[in-house]
Amino acid sequence: MNSIDIRKVIADIRDIDVSTAVDDASLSDLGLSSPDIVALVVRVEDLLGFSIPYERLSSVESLGGLEQLVSSLVRGPTEKKKNEGECVNS
């Protein structure tokens, strides 16, 4: 799965330039209202092809946090989890 450019999605929703926004900017600092944030989540979920767990989403406090969350969802399981079922011969 390709990465998702959260800044582009926000720019599309609000027609604003967020290319220079700092990672610790809150979504409201970027001018997003509650309906905008819902639209953002729906758009990202559509791009991901699955729902973002509410528990993970509710902990996001900034643009950088949202980018990290989406990046972790795009990457999927960590290497450790991918290798858990494999046997290692000694």
UniProtKB/TrEMBL annotation:
Gene3D superfamilies, sorted: ACP-like
InterPro entries assigned to the protein according to its UniProt record, in alphabetical order: ACP-like_sf, PP-bd_ACP
Ranges where the Carrier domain occurs: 1-74
Pfam families in UniProt: PP-binding
PROSITE patterns: CARRIER
Superkingdom assignment: Bacteria
Protein name: Carrier domain-containing protein
